[in-house]
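Table S5 (text form). Sequence records supplied for joint modeling of the two-component complex.
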Amino acid sequence: MSRRRIGIDVGGTKCLGVVLDDAGVVIEEQRRPTPPGTEAFVDTLAELATALGVTDSLGIGVPGMVTRSGVIKASPNLIDITDFEVGRMLSERLGFLVEVGNDATCAAAAEWQVGAARGATEMVMVTLGTGIGGGVIAGGQLIRGANGFTGEIGHMVVDPEGLPCPCGRRGCWERYASGSGLAQLARVAAIGKRLRRVVQLAGGDPDNVRGENVQAAAREGDVEALNVIDLFGRWVALGLVNLTNVLDPQMFVLGGGLAASGDLYLGPIQKWFTELLYAPDLRPHPQLVFASLGERAGAVGAALMTELR
Amino acid sequence: MSRRRIGIDVGGTKCLGVVLDDAGVVIEEQRRPTPPGTEAFVDTLAELATALGVTDSLGIGVPGMVTRSGVIKASPNLIDITDFEVGRMLSERLGFLVEVGNDATCAAAAEWQVGAARGATEMVMVTLGTGIGGGVIAGGQLIRGANGFTGEIGHMVVDPEGLPCPCGRRGCWERYASGSGLAQLARVAAIGKRLRRVVQLAGGDPDNVRGENVQAAAREGDVEALNVIDLFGRWVALGLVNLTNVLDPQMFVLGGGLAASGDLYLGPIQKWFTELLYAPDLRPHPQLVFASLGERAGAVGAALMTELR
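The corresponding structure-token record, covering 618 residues in total, follows.
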């Protein structure tokens, strides 16, 4: 009998657990609500793993800063959980070493091993959601960094005098190039008395404009909405260019909520990428592809992490 | 008899060749002027290698964009050399595979193997000279990237509406945090009628202010010069923070011309690094150390590259 590789992706509202077959295909999945409090959190993870038939292989993906030894330092979605040794507690409970990693790092592992970047040796995964997460494959390895914090790319500062970020600094990339960044760019444009159609779709109040409203108006062909998408594409490209300068990847895998409407963004991102890249004529440009594992990427990657440590 | 490992670092004016003993220590070195033209260039490299007693191990470090297969795509210091297959030509001439790499990548390899970062598994080398170069060690490997262009960190955009860069874009990190960046920050301050002592040291003309003038005035305790150093430290720190967010290194090795006056900068860089780092209280901060191999780092690393490919 082959090993039952199990992965759990912890989200703000639910935990998704999956079982992989030998080829890395999901053969079973179950969900549980993410409970408040550390004790109930560990209970839920252990119960979900047991329900999925865990034997000796479990990986957990958690948003936020997770150390290589399985300590959640802080997580944006688990506000009552800080400096919590979830790895050690689960390992003791289950009797084998449980691997814990950042959810975007897990997603990168999944797309690399069984998804859109299969076979790549140099790849950066960028998850464009409310914020921006990331994961790095370099030299044919999953890079985790000194502490496990590789890929906090949403907090690259791209404008030192820019928009304030809840992290306490200014001009972090995710203030511009995430889902909330798109909404912010649209609100700024709307308050300048523009974006009539977008504001209409948002119910008439510029302050209520969301990324979805921009997308919907852009799909109708609204020029002002398309201009916001273009500006957004410029900010996404700027960060991708910086990552290219640092890491020279062969490929970016774009995931997260915004990847679902990727067709709207791909053109602008590619145009601006070429415009902003250092020495664009002297090099092959990295491929821009969308993630193929959807919302399961984190859980699949968590299951694979046990073999990548 | 052990292998004669030979490395040559190509500079704008001279080529430095070294021979390493088994421990990686330089036991012999020779210099040649860097000649103009591709033919003389290959002749010089082959002659220097022969003079150093090359047998079957030669690495070459070249500034600029060098592919993994030894093609110089473009080099700021070798203006008449573009798209030139120096690796293939030297390999044919000498009868064995000659390794060619970017000079900052070579310097990173050297500091990692036999210098300030010995034993590190996660390290970023930053060479602060006229521009900024870089090299990346991650997951215990030298990272070269899809094309060999890993570490073009001087062209990370840190202010999209910032100072124009000769590369054609705006706000590249090296516009602020390099030797020429320091001079530029000082000239901007001087033109605003400040920096009397610095301008005096520059012969009275604000347009002639150089980094050395700022350093000299700062060493005298001139407050205005120290303010420029502080601002410069902020820009250096901003880039180091971005690299930390991407790669989570345990250590930065600072090299290049400015490292020689590193004592002036270290305090401001560290202060601003803590100020600008994402989640500074939740993580050990990477060590900031200065390069230990000085101007030989590129040549030593070039010699070691043959074993790291």
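Note: The mean pLDDT of chain A is 94.
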